[in-house]
Amino acid sequence: MNFYTRKWVKPEDLNAHGTLFGGRLLAWIDEEAAIYAIIQLGTLSCVTKYMSEINFVSSARQGDIIELGIKAVVFGHTSLTLTCEVRNKITQKTILTIDKIVFVSVDDSGKPVKHGRTEITYTDEWLRE
C-alpha cells in the first residue's frame, strides 16, 4: 500500500461530535483514488463506478495528521479496482478501510472503453506529453 497523501484535520473538517466528518474523508478518498486511477490507466477520462463497504475503524480529531493509502489490486479490460486504508500518521492506527473502489475508463459519451493496462505503473511521464 502506498501512502502518498496526508491531510491535517482542521476545525472545518469536523462533525458535531468533534471528530472528522465521514463525508469529508470520503471526498478526500475519492479524489485521491481518482488521481491514482488516472495515473495508472493513462487517461484523464475515468469515473468512479463502485465503492464497497466502508469500514470506519476509529476516529480522527482536530489536529491529527492522517494519511491515505491506495493500491491497485485488479486491472480489468475497462476498469481498475483499488483498495484503500486511511490511518493516523503519528500513531499508525487505522481510521478507515475500503476493500474495493472501482474506476472505469470512459469515452467522450461516458461509455466504458478498454484502457490496455495490466500492471501498476510507477511513472506519470505520459501526463507531460
TrEMBL record:
Alphabetical UniProt keywords: Hydrolase
Top-level taxonomic group: Bacteria
GO MF term set: long-chain fatty acyl-CoA hydrolase activity
Residue ranges of domain HotDog ACOT-type in the record: 1-109
Pfam families: 4HBT (PF03061)
GO biological process per UniProt: acyl-CoA metabolic process; fatty acid catabolic process
Keyword Hydrolase in annotation: yes
UniProt keyword annotation of Ubl conjugation present: no
Cellular component annotations (GO), alphabetically ordered: cytosol
PROSITE patterns: HOTDOG_ACOT
Similarity section: Belongs to the acyl coenzyme A hydrolase family.
Protein name: Acyl-CoA thioesterase
Organism annotation: Mucilaginibacter corticis
